[in-house]
């Protein structure tokens, strides 16, 4: 049985924005440590677990919630409203997971516009039978009243692009051990790092901690998908011609993907000295290509499938690129709805 902390229980909230739900599951993955959480915190808002409405949150005094784990990107007006509301009601707002931190997988939608997405879904997809090209409406009047849907934004945003964020806990999802470390530090009253810092991660890159052997030689003559090679389990993935985001990704996850012979995906985000993970990754790859002529190098690079989607898998909204800009808007590129 977990010991009861002498301090008053903290009030904890968890919210799920534009995300897959894995971050919420990771909160439950503490297993028996759940008793430590329950002994030290009262859950006051978690839509997937508690029957508490948005109106109940709106009625709370400002700063009434001690900690909110906000997972998910900002995809629509509901996400934006809840980000602002929870910021108002919370002392410590944590961007929990890759989607809140950097935009995550939902952020890849920034490679298309809202119009292109809706055209694909409601008009062009192979399974769509929609001869009238009907699309969702934000408001629709029925005799009982007005039905509403959230506004679908043109841009996917990070949490920090919407409200002030106190801390970031990266990962897809964050490692349970890191969550417990941060949670218990808050509960115990330990001195936390300055606001705005990434918690549960180190300042090193994945490559610095990776146990695989590296030769620092130009070895890439061709790129492969992981299933196309006979991985020896010991040699650096990049030296085998398999894309691995280790050079552009901070450590802290325990390199678990590498441990099960899978290349790093980049979910922990860039190291502190990396301005743009995609640019860093392209630079790292360029130094390893074994080609003497521009034609040879171009041929090797042709095997890189979807470089934007791979190099910015978790970070497109937070990157220098941020999104695909339509030609008619390239002269003015602020965040749009």
From TrEMBL:
Domain of life per record: Bacteria
Statement: the UniProt record of this protein carries the keyword Translocase: no
A Gene Ontology molecular function term of the record: oxidoreductase activity
Chain ranges of the NADH:ubiquinone oxidoreductase-like 20kDa subunit domain: 20-185
Keyword Disulfide bond: no
InterPro entries: Hydrogenase_assoc-protein (IPR051349), NADH_UbQ_OxRdtase-like_20kDa (IPR006137), NiFe_Hase_small_N_sf (IPR037024)
Signal peptide annotation: none
UniProt keyword list: Oxidoreductase
Name of the protein in its database record: F420-nonreducing hydrogenase
